[in-house]
Specification:
- By secondary structure, the chain is an alpha/beta fold.
- It has three domains: about 1-160, Spo0b-associated Gtp-binding Protein, Chain: A, CATH 2.70.210; about 165-325, 3-Layer(aba) Sandwich (Rossmann fold), CATH 3.40.50.300; about 345-430, GTP-binding protein OBG, C-terminal domain (GMP Synthetase, Chain A, domain 3).
- The chain is about 15% helix and about 20% strand.
- A hairpin with a 2-residue loop joins strand 18 and strand 19.
- The chain is elongated and about 105 Å long.
- The chain starts with 8 loop residues before the first strand and ends in a 28-residue tail after the last strand.
């Protein structure tokens, strides 16, 4: 629901910072004719973190500005100087915010001040050429690119954290009551749907203190989407005690019994377990009700204007809240952890091309500078060691078939399946045109075995 000052549902686009690129660098010192590689690594990108904050009342800040992006990592430098890590972006949300994914799955429930959820991880920093130096590869002339940060579209829903929820028809006197017993100052007027947003108020009665929420008016059929009340039913979910406020001076002619039955029915249809919560049925506007209506009402009667019956109501609520707090465990926040998947799978795209799906394989290709022959050969070796080529062969890949890994496209050579270490030719980015560039003498990394009759290098 959206108003000028209150938003309880919003979307956020979270993007982690990009990783910095590694650098290709060699030592340049006087009297050192062959300085070794000294390219530093790039810094990792920052994360976007959602953090519950009791000082934030709504999701209003996301209504016009849904995009949140963390800082990117710095690039590496020579002399083995690594780039700085990008700063995390901590985004404050109200306590009681639920984080949902695109498919509607609940990813996190932030019910306590300080609870955090990493909405988007930053990308890894690329390694500089110093990291690729080995006894066989003494002067690597390539480095890794930085990894792009994650980007996620998430839906945030706020469910108010209240001990008592006031539930009733429009103009039942909910706003007047919460204004009389707390410091909340809701807008009050004599027309339907005066309350367009929930209000929270802290009630202090003797040694007791509890939070009361004014839930905008329900009408019959609210659980199926009628009226405005269905947009606020979520705020009843966390309340420990329910107060069904019925209007003893209803101008629509609804009896207190009829109002009570409709309210219970709507709560049951929305979420049946709500009927298991402690609840009080309270008659409002006792000062202006017909004497016979008030006399026939069996519940508590109050008047927020004259304050008649308020002390008795607050005493009952304080007892019910204390008992509910003692009977139930403290609300626990939870976060769905997303471990990095291991391994890979081979699938087919609609156009018949083969696709390798797996975070490690996709990352190895995405971070490589495939315009560099040494880097392409290194990636080819990594894929071979992961078992990607054997898996493709088992699935039935044929010479000339297209293989895609992430956003990169490669093609099997006509004779690449002969020998133990089969493999695709140098990868191409999707959409590249023209023939593949041949290997050059001096290329590093594992190569396709030579057959009898091949020219020596």
């Amino acid at each position: 629901m959206v108003s000028q000052g209150f938003v309880d549902e919003a979307q956020v686009n979270a993007r982690g910072g990009d990783g910095g690129a590694g650098v290709v660098s060699f030592r340049r010192e006087a009297h050192v004719p062959q300085g070794g590689p000294d390219g530093g690594n790039g810094g990792a990108g920052g994360d976007v973190i959602l953090q519950a904050d009791r000082n934030v009342a709504s999701l209003l800040g996301f209504r016009d500005h849904p995009h949140r992006r963390a800082e990117s990592g710095a690039h590496g430098q020579g002399s083995k100087r690594n780039g700085a890590r990008g700063a995390d972006l901590v985004v404050s949300v109200p306590v009681g915010t639920t984080v949902n994914g695109r498919d509607g799955q609940v990813l996190a429930d932030l019910v306590r001040h300080g609870d955090q959820y990493v909405a988007a991880h930053g990308g890894r920093g690329g390694r500089g050429n110093a990291s690729f130096a080995t006894n066989r590869r003494r002067a690597p002339g390539f480095a890794e690119q930085g990894e792009y940060g994650e980007e996620e579209w998430l839906t945030l829903e706020l469910r108010l954290m209240a001990d008592v929820a006031l539930v009733g028809f429009p103009n039942a006197g909910k706003s007047t009551l919460i204004g009389a017993v707390s410091a909340a100052k809701p807008k009050i007027a004599d027309y339907p749907f005066t309350t367009l947003v929930p209000h929270l108020g802290v009630v202090r009665f003797h040694e007791h203190e509890f939070v009361m929420a004014d839930i905008p008016g329900l009408i019959e059929g609210a659980s199926q989407g009628r009226g405005l009340g269905h947009q606020f039913l979520r705020h009843v979910e966390r309340a420990r005690v329910l107060v069904l406020l019925v209007d003893l001076a209803s101008v629509e002619g609804r009896s207190p019994t009829d109002q009570t039955e409709v309210l219970i029915e709507e709560l049951s249809r929305y979420r049946a377990e709500l009927l298991e919560r402690p609840r009080l049925v309270v008659g409002s506007k006792a000062d202006v009700s017909a004497p016979e209506v008030a006399a026939g009402f069996e519940g508590l009667t109050v008047s927020a204007v004259t304050r008649a019956g308020l002390d008795e109501l607050l005493g009952r609520l304080a007892e019910e809240v204390s008992a509910a707090r003692a009977a139930e465990p403290e609300l626990e926040s939870f976060v769905v952890h997303r471990p990095e998947g291991e391994g890979f799978a081979v699938t087919r795209d609609d156009d018949g091309a083969w696709r390798v799906v797996g975070r490690q394989a996709e990352r190895a290709v995405a971070m490589a500078d495939l315009t560099n022959d040494e880097a392409a050969a290194y990636v080819q070796g990594r894929l071979r060691r992961m078992g990607v080529e054997r898996a493709l062969a088992r699935e039935g890949v044929r010479p000339g078939d297209t293989v895609r890994i992430g956003g990169v496209e490669m093609q099997y050579l006509a004779d690449s399946l002969e020998g133990e270490d089969q493999g695709p030719e140098r990868p191409r980015r999707a959409g590249d045109q023209g023939p593949e560039r041949p290997r050059r003498a001096g290329d590093q990394g594992p190569e396709r075995p030579r057959r009898a009759g091949d020219a020596s290098r």
